[in-house]
Each structure stands twice: as C-alpha cells, then as structure tokens.
Design brief:
The complex is a heterodimer of chains A (130) and B (428).
Chain A: H1 3-7, H2 17-26, E1 31-32, H3 33-43, H4 52-64, E2 68-71, E3 86-89, H5 91-113
Antiparallel strand pairs in A: 1-3, 2-3
Helix pairs in contact in A: 2-3
Chain B: H1 2-27, H2 33-87, H3 96-124, H4 132-136, H5 138-141, H6 144-176, H7 181-212, H8 220-252, H9 258-282, H10 288-294, H11 297-315, H12 334-349, H13 355-376, E1 378-379, H14 381-387, H15 392-404, E2 408-413, E3 416-421
Helix pairs in contact in B: 1-2, 3-6, 3-10, 3-11, 6-7, 6-8, 6-11, 7-8, 8-9, 9-10, 9-11, 12-13, 14-15
Classes of the chains: A mainly alpha (130), B mainly alpha (428).
Amino acid sequence: MGDVEARGPDDHLPLSPAVLDIMLALGDGELHGYGIMREVKQRTGGRRRLAPGTLYRSLGQMEERGWVAESDERPDPVLDDERRRYYRLTEFGKRVAAAEVERLEGLVQAARSKGLAPRGQPSGAPGSAS
Amino acid sequence: MMGRDGGRRGGRRAALLAVSALLYRALLVAYPKAFRRRYSSEMRRDFGDLSREGLEEGGGRELARVWAATLSDLAVTALKERSTMLARNAYLPLAPRIAARWGAFSALLGGLLGVAYSVAFTLTINNGTPDGAAWWDSRFIGEVHFVATFREIHFAGTFLSVLGMFGLYGALVARSGHPGKLALAGVAFGALSAASILTLHVYDIAIMPSLNLWPGIEGFWWWTMTMPLVLDVLGMGGCVVGLSLLGVSAFRMRLFGPLTTLPFVVAALWPASIALLILMNASGIHWMHYVSWLSGTLPFLGAALSGWVLLRTLSTDQLAPAGGVSSGVVEESRGTARRAAEGMRRTTSEGWMDPQRASATEAAKEQELLEAIGRKGQVTAVEAALETSLSVEETERMLTELAAKGHLEVRVRSGRLLYALWQSDAPE
C-alpha cells in the first residue's frame, strides 16, 4: 500500500478554497472547465468566480493527486462540445472532500460555541445570495 | 434602421471578442510550455465563453471586469506554475548526469588552459615589472598577435572554469534528485559570472580599441577603467558567491564528501590568488613578481581539480542510483526493497545520511518502482505510489528522472502522463 492511501484523506487537509469549490462543483457529476466556473458563480451568487488560470492549475494538481480524473464519457452527446474535457471526482477525491467538509464543520461548531459565527444560512450555500 | 444598428453593434461586439481572444492567447505564453500544451486550448475556449457572457450581461464594463480578474489571476498562477516547474527541475535542458559530465570536462579543460596561461605568461615576462599595463603593452612580449593569443587563452580558461559550476549543479541534482533553492541561486550566480566574463571579453576586443581612438569622449575614464573593473568584479564575485552557495547547498542536502568541500576550496582560491598577487607585488623583491603572477594559477588549479574529481565520481557511478534500470527488476524481492526504503526513511529522519547507504536505498526504491511498472505495464505517478511504499512526490521525481535519462517511455493518455518500460526492457 502506498503512502497516498497510508496517509489517508485527512493528511491532505486543509484544501485551498479553489480546490474545494471545484470539488463541490463536481459533486453533482461530471463537468467541463467552463461548467465548473458557472457552477461556482451560480452557487455563490457571483461572489466567487474562478478564473481560467486558477481553475486549470488546481485541476492539474488534483489530477496528479488522484482526486479528479478526466472522464471518457460525455454526459449529454447532443449539447456537448466534443472538444471539451470533462472532469469527475474519484473515490479518493470524494473522501478528501468529505474530510475537508468535516473539518470545516468542526471549525464552524467551535466558532458557534464561542459566539463567533452567525446562526443564519451560511454564505456560499445554494440560494443564499440570489 | 434598428436592424442595421443591431448589425453594426453585433459586428463591433464580434471584433471586440476576437481582439480579446487574440490578446489572451498571446498572454498565455506566460505559462510554462508543458502547462500550455495541456490546458491552453481549454483556457482559451473558457475565456472566450466568459468574455461573451460578460459582454452580453454587462457590456464593455463587464468585459473589462472579466479582463481585470483574468489578468491578475494569470500573473499569479503563471508565476506559481513556473516556480513549480523550477522546483521539479523541469527547466534543466540536460539530464543532470549529462550536465555534470559536460561541466566537469569544462572545468578540467578551463583549469588546464588557465594554468598553462599563467605559467607561460610568467615565463614570458622577463622584464620583471608586471603590472596591468604589461598585459596591453606589446613591447613586453613582442608581437601583437602573441598578446591576442594570450588574451584568448586567458578568456577561454576563465570562461570554461566558471562553466564548471554547471557541472557541480548537475552533480547536486543527480545526487539529491532535486535542485533546491540554494543550488539554484548558486548556479544563477555562476551564470552571472560567465555572462560578465563573456561581456568583458567582447568589450575588450570590440569596444576598448575604438574608445582609444576617441580619447576626448565624455566619461572616458569610466568607459576605459570603471566599466571593465565592474565586469571583472562581477565575474569573480559571481563565481565566488555561486561556488559558496553550491557548497552550502550540498552541505544542507547532506551530500558529504567532494561535492561539499570542492566548491568552498575553489571559491577560496580566487580571493587567495588576488591577495597573493597584491602582497608579492608590494614586497618590492624582484623575484616575488614571478611568484605573484604564478599565484594566478591557483583558481585554475582548483577548477581543474574539481573537474577531475567530478569526472572520477561520475565514472564510479556515485552520482546516481546504482544498478541497472531494467535488469533484475522482477528478481528483486519486494519485501527487501520495502525494508530498504523504510531504512532510508529512518536514516533521513535521524538527520544524517551516509552517501553509500543512501545510494543503496535509492537503488532499492528504484527497483521497487520498476517492479510496479513491470507488473502494471504502465502507471501514473499516483498509481505507482499506490503500488509501492514510496510517496507520490518520490515516485514522481524518480519517474521524471528515469524518463529524462531515456530509461522509461512516456505516454500521454487523456492528458495524463503514463510511464512504461520500453518494449525491450519489459519482463516476459
């Protein structure tokens, strides 16, 4: 067993905001680069936007670490642009994302218990800023 | 009427988008080549979509916002990506061992030329008052072409000796597997030194003579004295600083032995020779002048010595993981390799690494990696890490090195880099 699995998902934390955004975007299924950008923009009500440099640099790193993989299948052959590459989360990527979300949940709970976090709907959640 | 206006507006918009796309395409050159090859077509397509969307939603103002965000992002990510490439040693145009070999040859040849020059020059001067003017004054030595030959030999010796620093750098990378910031800074000073020496030579032969024809020019003193002195100091200073940094880098990488001591010794010989030159000249004793001129051989002796030692180190194969790449891949027990790798980890964590033991464990790691490739047929760095006891960083480094040396075949599938044994090396 190699070091990647031996270390486990927790050892890759914390993730950068861009990486977590990409993981959340890919949580619903396979997307191409522009689709990821649109999803992030819609989900955050335009407060967060990924530029191409950050997006593809992050995707490159995530591919190297085995968190995302390029998909060979095209989700919608009619609407799809054949030249686009689609990306999907791998099982290990999903485990890393889950570990990061758990870590953030712990932080939020700690902040709430100290009165440092608002109790309303968190920003960045779907529909929070439309 | 409105249709015509709409058509004009559509035409302007299309032109704006075309110019915008063209400009973005040109700016992508800021990224390293490998990154561009992998992502530039997608980035251009996505930027085109972003621009179109921006223009439709908010007109020119929104397009300007898209540009502002993209430009700042491009500047930051291009810099980061280039720095990643640097850390992975992707910019070295030669395999480290080849760089080490050429650098060693260069230092040896340059050193010998420099020693020959210094000895011949000292023997040629029989007047006994060798100062700076003697170099230029053909009355001391004879024919003008003789002086020119001496000058060329001196230049070649110095230049080649300084290029030897690239050999030391190549050896450090070959031995440690990564460049390290200090070694990079050291070789950058080496490049500065070599460039200064080259510029000084071109200045001497192409510009100085024409300056002598115009003694009345403004700043004559600066051009004839200060400028060459500045280049001289940059040449020597760059060499001394660069060598010292390479020595410190080798020490910090725990590469004990000649790779650590040689750079310091050679660096120290430069100021030592200058000090001797000044002291002996100041002594006023006639024959001391000859000793002072002979002291010029010191840095060249150092360069020749470092070239010789590097070549010997290379020939005994101490700079790279020992053992053949394809032979014995299947035979080697995986458990032994893993124990060796664990031993390596323990040794490293204790803060001391014996070079011979490190080399042996590196070989064990290499065999473990090659076994995995032999079993799987082809692997990515992550797959190789999953199959072995190595980390992703280690497998990536080793795969890159083996591929750079031509031992592995690199395939690109769906944008992923896959490493495989050449057909002739693959186990039956």
